[in-house]
Design a protein that fits this description.
heterodimer; A: 606 residues; alpha/beta; FAD/NAD(P)-binding domain; Alpha-Beta Plaits; 31 strands; B: 103 residues; mainly beta; Ubiquitin-like (UB roll); 7-stranded mixed β-sheet; 30% strand
């Protein structure tokens, strides 16, 4: 095939965006993708993207894949082949294997865009090839693309954004994440991602590593160990964790094999994930007609990959046709630079500098900048976004313009509470789930709106557990309102004591286990006790008479305290302030006969 | 290693069931699933034996990069089962070592 203008290797976010730009200008484009479905790793990203709305922020990754594929599909001069692999780069042409027919076609394109993505880094520990030790991407593929659970209990290695996001997605799928371990002394990913898993009850153990996977044919556990300041395991700190899955999320390295074969210069840049192709500001490699974009040109994330792809595509159009939309190209460059100008991109900037691209950090705001306490009583958002990350859907989604991120997308949002109507849209749009709604009431309680992406979805009137920032149970609470959102980030409004507003950040539904007994003698369940309390029996004596709790043969020895503790949790009064109720005779079961035959020791009778 | 039925964000479209064979055992899959995914849904993680030490290995990257999921499919060795769709009647075996031509 000789009239091909552009061959795109890899149909992920970078490759698709490059192909779209080229196709829009009429070039003949072929995208070759190895996968069963195109879209690269977007197809398994269930979280809402950070960034700006122009580049699909707040849209879930898999929906972005659909949008890009639809867009490319609208051009007759572009096509995608899946289950196909580029075998090599030869001067005579580029052999592409169609794995379905097991046949090879030779292409001679005018230019090539390598958007080959990356591969998982493989961590060294004993038994690290045991089935059940997966890369984080594999877990996502199984779980989010095919709907198959990778296991039931997981140990996550690595607290970068991927480790944190995949942990959260495992929880959403109903898998238990025992812990996230991190070798360094600080969490690698965004604070807001870490907060999401912490409030779901997953501990993040810093300065820890895995030393061994346990099991013969499949993982049955892991040995972890604390690390000293020289990154060596501390003897005596080893402990076993029982898990059936170990997930490695220690980073990615760019797939540069084909670029190197094509003669493109590659260079080792640790900050960008390993060997990266040397390329200029316009994504052009050291070989004239070859461009690179996305993770293949340095590990970053999907938003920058899409922008890089578009920049490469426009430049290819310019090379072939002599011109391209320069304004658009400049605007893409500006956006990309802005995106990378914040503190969370410092590593990327250091890496890019090593291959000749200089991006300067621009001034940004961070920390607590809002003062919700001065609007006590008004329904309003509590914005817990304190880290300067490139993201602004709260600003763009606010219908009244109350929230401002400003010119630098890395700024933390500032809210003008006098303009806020309390609609809660920002809370459903925030990709970090870092916005909570709050309204204090005169009776000492407050309404707290929590973004919720789990099943089962509670209903109005349900009693739920309110969890704190580390997943601890703070109290139980009633659901007052459920706002279902089309993007599946629903808002659950619960009523809680006002003094707990700052502590409660998550909730869990009360799982009704009908055989969960409180009282063995009379067979009364936890759920029955809770229901009675909610029906108005808020005193132990009332519960006793209504449910027969403590009226059985044990006389309340087994059930009294349990019942009082449930009552305490439900009504928010400490056990020590509750009445324990009457303790009636007889203290143990006795026969009537024993009473009949009774006589007093010092009796005057007989 | 079971299939997710209810998910807070995703819906899984599982249309047509197909039957395939793993080590002569009949197994069910849904059309569109990869061989490796279908095996996981059936509780199979152990996909091959390494050439030197005959160690069990399974899926690692699931996107066709690491070649840890190579299996023998319809007599053909070294098939990357993580990016090959399962098809009706397929015969899949654990690959032992490097595989043999003509299996």
């Amino acid at each position: 095939m000789d009239n091909l203008d552009l061959l795109v290797v890899g149909g992920g976010p970078a490759g698709l965006c490059g192909a779209i730009e080229a196709a829009r200008s009429g070039l003949n484009v072929l995208v070759v993708d190895e996968g069963v479905v195109p879209g690269g790793q977007l197809v398994k990203q269930t979280h809402k993207f950070f960034g700006s709305e122009e580049f699909y922020a707040s849209v879930r990754g898999m929906k972005i894949a659909t949008k890009l594929l639809d867009d490319l599909g609208s051009y007759e001069n572009a096509r995608i082949v899946t289950e196909s692999s580029v075998l090599a780069i030869y001067e005579e042409g580029i052999p592409v294997l169609d794995r379905r027919s097991d046949s090879v076609t030779l292409y001679r394109p005018s230019s090539i865009l390598f958007a080959t993505g990356a591969s998982e880094k493989f961590l060294q520990f004993d038994n690290n090839d045991l089935p059940g030790v997966y890369g984080a991407g594999a877990v996502q593929t199984l779980m989010n693309q095919y709907g198959i659970l990778p296991g039931n209990t997981v140990l996550m290695i690595g607290s970068g954004n991927i480790g944190l996001i995949v942990s959260y997605q495992l929880l959403q799928a109903g898998v238990e994440v025992k812990a996230i371990i991190e070798a360094s002394g600080r969490i690698g990913g965004y604070e807001v991602h870490a907060e999401k898993v912490k409030r779901s009850g997953v501990p993040i153990l810093l300065k820890h590593t895995i030393t061994k996977a346990l099991g013969r044919d499949s993982v049955i556990g892991a040995v972890i160990s604390a690390l000293d300041e020289k990154w060596k395991p501390v003897p005596g700190t080893e402990r076993e964790i029982v898990v059936d899955t170990i997930c490695i999320a220690v980073g990615l390295s760019p797939s540069v094999e084909l670029i190197a074969q094509a003669g493109g210069e590659i260079k080792y840049v640790a900050e960008l994930g390993g060997y990266v192709p040397v390329r200029d500001y316009n994504q052009k490699s050291t070989v004239g007609n070859i461009y690179v974009a996305g993770d293949a040109s340095g590990i970053e994330e999907a938003t920058t990959a899409m922008i890089e792809g578009r920049i490469a595509g426009l430049n290819i159009v310019k090379d072939i046709t002599g011109s391209c939309d320069i304004d658009r190209l400049n605007s893409l460059h500006q956006n990309l630079d802005k995106f990378r100008s914040g503190p969370t991109s410092s590593k990327t900037r250091t890496g890019l500098k090593k291959i000749g691209s200089t991006i300067t950090e621009i001034e940004y705001t961070e920390g607590e900048v809002n003062r919700p306490e001065s609007f006590r009583g008004k329904l309003r958002p509590l914005i817990e976004c304190y880290e300067a990350i490139p993201c602004n859907p709260c600003e763009t989604s606010c219908p009244t313009g109350a929230i401002k991120v400003g010119k630098n997308i890395n700024n933390v949002p500032v809210i003008d509470y006098s303009l806020c109507t309390g609609c809660g849209i920002c809370a459903t749009k925030c990709p970090g789930l870092a916005i909570f709604m709050c309204q204090e009431r005169d009776d000492g309680t407050a309404l707290l709106g929590i973004p919720y992406e789990f099943l089962p979805l509670p209903s109005r009137g349900d009693s739920v557990f309110a969890f704190g920032r580390n997943g601890e149970v703070v109290c139980s609470a009633d659901v007052e309102r459920v706002v279902k959102s089309p993007n599946k980030t629903n808002l659950i409004y619960i009523r809680v004591p006002e003094e707990l507003v700052g502590r409660i950040r998550h909730l869990g539904t009360v799982v009704s286990r009908s055989r969960d007994l409180v009282c063995r003698c009379e067979e009364v369940t936890v759920e029955q006790v809770r229901k009675a309390i909610r029906d108005g029996y808020k005193d132990f004596e009332e519960l006793r008479r209504y449910l027969r709790i403590s009226m059985g043969p044990c006389g309340g020895r087994t059930c009294r305290l349990n019942t009082l503790m449930i009552l305490s949790r439900e009504i928010g009064i400490p056990v020590e302030e509750l009445s324990p109720g009457m303790m009636r005779p007889p203290a143990i079961p006795v026969t009537f006969g024993s009473i009949e035959r009774s006589g007093a020791e010092n009796s005057d009778e007989e | 290693m079971e299939r997710i039925l209810d998910h807070p964000v995703l819906t899984f479209e599982r249309d047509k069931k197909v039957v395939f064979f793993f080590e002569d055992l009949e197994m069910e899959a849904y059309e569109g699933e990869t061989i490796a995914a279908a095996l996981h849904a059936n509780g199979i993680r152990d996909l091959r034996r390494t050439p030197r030490e005959e160690r069990p290995q399974g899926l690692f990257c699931a996107i066709g990069k690491c070649s840890s999921c190579l299996m023998e499919v319809d007599g053909k060795p070294n098939v990357r089962t993580c990016i090959t769709p399962v098809r009706s009647g397929m015969r899949v075996r654990r690959q032992k070592g490097r595989g043999e031509i003509g299996g």
